[in-house]
Each structure stands twice: as structure tokens, then as C-alpha cells.
Known about the structure:
The complex is a heterodimer. Chain A is mostly helical. Chain A has helices spanning 2-29, 43-52, 59-71, 86-121, 126-140, 143-157, 171-201, 204-211, 216-243, 247-252, 259-267, 271-299, 301-304.
Amino acid sequence: MALYIVKRLLSALPTLFIIITLSFFLMRVAPGGPFDLERPLEAKVMENLKRVYQLDRPLWEQYLIYLKSLLHGDLGPSFYWRDFSVNELFARALPISMRIGATALGVALVVGSLLGALAALRQNSAADYAVMTGATLGITIPTFVVAPVLQLVFGLALAWLPLGGWNDGAWRNSILPIATLALPQIAIIARLTRASMIEVLRSHHIRTLRSQGLPLRYVLKHSLRAAALPVVSYLGPAAAALMTGSIVVETIFAIPGIGRYFVDAALNRDYTLVMGTVILVAVLVVLFNLVVDLVYAWLDPRVRYE
Amino acid sequence: MTGEPVLEISGLKVVFSTPDGPVDAVRGVDVSVRRGETVAIVGESGSGKSQMMMASIGLLASNGRSSGSVRLEGREILGLSSRELDRVRGRRVTMIFQEPMTSLDPLFRIGDQLAEPLMVHGGLSRGAAKARALELLRLVGIPEPERRIQSYPHELSGGQRQRVMIAMAISNNPAVLVADEPTTALDVTVQAQILALLADLQKRLGMAIVFITHDLGIVRRFADRVYVMRRGEVVEQGETARILAAPQHDYTKMLLEAEPTGTKAPPPADAPVVVSARDVHVTFKMPAGMFKPPHLVRAVDGVSVELKRGQTLGVVGESGSGKSTLGRAILKLTPAAGAIRFEDRNLAPLDRAAMRPLRKSMQLVFQDPFGSLSPRMTVGDIITEGLLVHEPQIDRAAREARAAQALTEVGLDPASRNRYPHEFSGGQRQRIAIARAMILEPAFVVLDEPTSALDRSVQREIVNLLRGMQERRGLTYLFISHDLAVVRAMADEIIVMKDGLAVESGPTRQIYEEPRQDYTRNLIAAAFLSRRAEAA
């Protein structure tokens, strides 16, 4: 088991290396640089800046320098937020994004699977149609519509919750962003759960339970576990996406999370920050996929022996 | 048999509402089962025999409606709420099913699954239920029950899983056990063991068994009384001996005669050898899993065969014996070691591209007529696809003509070539699969369990069709089957396979009448071959 985890992590290293190399050179192929402003800098200033950030060296040398500092866990200085290193930026912003993302995912998992299971058990009833209509709305209405509507209703009209801001992580400030992030996930998870649950309820082993006269809670115990399998597979990539922050949500609710760095960094050619976010997302995807596989094996004994 | 009735079904009707309108699956049947007796419900697929029993204990699919009366130990149970039914099911009446592979939850240990009905109906604590589960596993003859109680279903064979199902079904001493084709998916020797187990448990526990089956061999051995069903109605009923000896209804007579009969005339002694394979080995390397080292499986271990023009070689054995792999190896569809010759050519050095021109002469028909035809192609396109590859020079009109001719030869309406596979029954689909192979005018055809998924009466037609085509065209068959009745009707010679080895081979008559190996004797004894039983 431990050996398996180590093996999986080791086998992810070449993947990470390829991702790092590709994004390093792709980023440099894009026209423009971190110091190209609308009003060009003086040549002397530009030269100094480039020397300080070692951009005057040949590209391959910059690449080796970057790899070397990576090995020491140093993601380099940010070119745009010039007083901060990428590590510092992440240390401040990542926990905020992860907290909101993880809570949203947790809420979505509980609410989504309950709604999905309810819809499957009452297939083609009013409850089923209500859940499915809600799920379709949740998937189709974009967050940049949901977020302002929530602000209008709960922030302005009812004035129950603050409109935005982080306020050092006060729980009242995080309710609306979490709700905005969770709604589409609830919709997706409810649909996934409903579909797999309907299939499980028709399966032979559920028929066995019914022929044995076992009450509903046994049917639920057996069918929920089987129906969880496709949901678990979905959770890996979803978790990586949610925990690295949502640009829309963090911008609308003015949350100092990591999501907005993605866009800012790319637009400003902040090479090290772009690389840092790419590596962060890649590592999270690898980790969450590993967690998903372990949970899957724990749920399904057949996978353990393949 | 004069016991009081324990299960009385009267005027039971089952209707399914479908998008094409209501379908009457059961049209008013009366069945009575007395305490401790075995009643067989016999019929072909679609006769409503399973749906009748499912309806009786409230297990119909959600689009099914039942009406009439079902009295269990004097109490009306049809129309009970599911809560009330749950107090009867599992306690007084239980059911085991045709699909042992999928009837247990793959995600839970069998000990936990066995304990649940004991805790719910017997009021046992978890610990007491586990102890009783162990006793039950021992009772149904699971080896090493202390270890097996911790197993997951996929770690058990099909026969063992059915034993676990039986253990679960008898765990609360029911008055009635409904067994819906419990051995159809199992090998014949396993089938015999399961049937013996059921008969033994019945004697010990005194429960009545309702046996739903299409297999008259099982009926003959085990049932006290028989109900013959056809299209949702009981056409004949009575004591087993009377029904089998003097059937009144034409349908019963047809069922009794449906077992494939006759034997095949052997090819002339000087017929040329078409296919020879010497010392064939197929080894699969199983990759390492999360918790398992890699290992080798010898699927075929040094088997030699020789087939003359017009000859049929039967390959029999239980599942996993390597018989299908042998067929694929001879066709070079799976990598194999050994000398394989077709007519005058050595196939061993040929790669895929070099094999392609030969494929026209070496065809394969599969077991599953539902999975082996593309659902998105018309029947005409399916059977002419091979012509596009092997005879690209012929034009569309000529292909159509060949397709019509091939369909006529297999007994289908040539106009059906514009229809899709799902519009056909299992037997008709198997005819389409045969037409697809035969349109290329092959010399050698591997028939891999072509009749196993079909009803007996349809099997007989397919056997006759295959024999007729062989006679007309001088075909050579490799006929793979676990069904000894069908093999007897098809093959000149037989090889018996076990664990990748050919344990016995010889002319068909000799194998059936003077088997030398215990394994072969067991296979034959377990098959309940009816005519043999009558002659003996």
C-alpha cells in the first residue's frame, strides 16, 4: 500500500517535468515580456531589470537556473508583484482559496448526493423532476450571474450577509462565495449520483436484497456505496479545479485568493508566477487523482486485485 | 405427495406497460405447491415463467402490474405493501436467481451479506449472525468457510457464489424456495453439485422448491410435478413421470423432442487434411496488480488436433478449460506457439497482414448472438462486410444478390437485410452470424458455443442448419461447446479439455459410451443426457 503510493508519486515526476519544460518554453514563445508597459521603459532601466531577474542570460541557462531553484522548493521572485516571491504570494492566497474550495466541495458532495439519491429512489416523480430541473439550471447558469444575484438578494435586499471582502476569514464573509462555487457542483454531483443510482437499483444484487425482504435502509446502504463510484472519479479533477480558486468568484466577492493570479500573471507575462500556478495545479491534480484511486480501491474490492 | 398447499397461485395475471402498449406476460395461471415438494415450471424464454414467480413475491419491474391471488401458507400476499412484504420475503419465501455472478453485492464481504437477513428477520446480533453465517457456509459446502466468510464475491467461482446465494436463501428456514434457473449459467458438473445440494437441503429442511427451468433433464431428475408454460399460460401440468412419458399438449411434445438428435455421417477415410495443429501452447502473462505479482497462465498446454475435409471436431470442457482459446489460437487470433497448418500452408510465420487473405477461408461464429452483431449496421451490411474486404471487385448488385442468397440459405427472409439486429430473436441473430461467416465460402469454421445462448428448440434448428450446410459444402468444423447433447449431435471426433490439456480424445461414440477418464465420465453424468438415461 505505502509502496504503491510511493510508486505512483515517483511515476508522476516525469509528467511534472514535461509539464514544467513545455510551459517554460511556451511562455517564452509568447510575444512581450514582464516589463513591456504601455509607455516603454528607458533602455537603461530595462537592461538593469533584465540583469536583476537574469533575463539577459541565454534561454537554456535561464531554464537550468529555474530548475535548480525549483529543486530547492523556490518558485522564484514574482516579476509583477516585485516585492514578493511566488512562494510568498502562494502562502498568503492559497489557504484562502483552498478553504473556500474545499468547503464548497464538501457541501456539494453532501447535498448533491442526497438530492441525486432522492431523485433516483423517486424516479419520474415530482421530486425527481424538481431535482433534475434544478440541476440543469445549476449547470447552465454561469457563476457570474449567480454571484451578483446572491449579492443582490442576501447582501442588499435582505442585508443578512456582507457583499464581499474577506475580513480575515469571518464565516459570514465566506457563505456567499461558497454557495456560488457549490451550486454548479451540487448540480453535477446530483446528476451523476442519480444516474448511477438508478442503474444500481436495477442491478441483480439489489434484487437479491429485495427478495430477502431487507428494508429500505439496507437497500440504501448497498446502493449508495455502488453509486458513489462514478462520483468519486469525478471528484479528483473537480477538487483540483475548485481548490486553486475561481477567478470569477474571487473577483466578484473581492477575496484575496489565488484565482486572480492566474489571469493577472498570464496577462502581465509574469513568467515565474505563471510557472508557479502551472506547477501548483499539476501537483494538485496528481495528488487528488491518487487520493481518488485510493478511495476507489477502498470502496471497490475488485479494483484492489487488478 | 399429499401435503397441504403452502403456495397457491390462482388467476395470476401480469401486464407490463411498454411504449408500444401493454404486454401480457402472464395470462391467468393457477399453480399450487404443497409443503416439501418440488414443482418445476418449464417453458422457453418469454413464456412468462420467471415473471409469474417474480410477481408472486412482489419483485416485478416498476412497469409491471399483477392481479389475481397468491396465498402463502394461507395468507394473501399479492398486493401487500412493500413493508408488509418484507416480513414475508426472506422469512417464509425466498428466491435464488439465474445470475450467480451478479446476484451478490461486489462491494461487500459475503459474511456481511449473509448476516443481514439473519439480523433483520432472525433478530440476531451481528456476532451471532456471523456465527450462523459460518454454519450456513459449511452447510452449503463452501470449502474453508472461516476464510471464505471474509471473501468478496469476485474471489469466488460461479458455483460457489450460487452456494452463497442458497445459504442466504435458506438462512431463515423458508417454507418455499423459488429457484429461477439457478444452474443455467454454470458448468454441467457444477450444475449437478448445486442440484444435489438443493435436493439434500430440501430433505433436511422440508421446504418446498419451485424450480423454474428450461432443462427437461433437470425436471426429470428433481421435480415431483411439472407445469408447462407457453406464452403466459399453463398448457399442461401433472406428475413428472406422467408428463414426460405421455405428454398431451403439442407444445410439451415439442419441448421433449427438442433435444438435438441424430449423429453426423463421418467424412470419407481418404478425405484430405484441412487443418492441423501440433503442440499448441497459449500462455497469458497476467500483469502485476496493486497487491499482486505478475504470473503466467497456461490457457492451452500442448494440444494437437487434425481436421479432415467434412469433419467436425468437438471440443468440450468446462469454462476456463481453454477450449475457446484453442479455437482462437488455430485461427491465429491469439498469439500461440506450435505448428499450425491450413491446407498446404504453414501459418506459424504469418503476420496479421499475411493472414488476411486466408481469413476468407477460416471463419468464426461466436457464442453471443446479441453482442457479436453491430447494432448500428443493417443485416445486409453486416453480412456483406467481409465481401468488401475479400472480394472488392464485385459490385453492389452482386453483393446484394449474395446477401439474399446467404440469408435464404440460413432460413431467413432475404428482405430482412435492410433491418437491424435488434429486430431479431436470438436464434435469428445466430442465423445472421452464420450467414456472415458462410457468405465468404470458407473451408474451415470455428463454432464457439454457437447454440449456448439459445432455447433448446432453437438449438435443434441451428444444429440442423449447420449440419446441412456442412454436408452441402464439405465444410470442416471445430465445434466448441460445454453442452454434451449438442456436441453428440454435431461431432465425429471429440477432444475433452481440462486446465489447458487435452485429457481424452477419440470418436464421439467411444467418448460417450466408454469414457476412459473420470473427468469425462463426470461431465457426461452431470449432463443428464435424456436418451442415454432412458436407454440405461
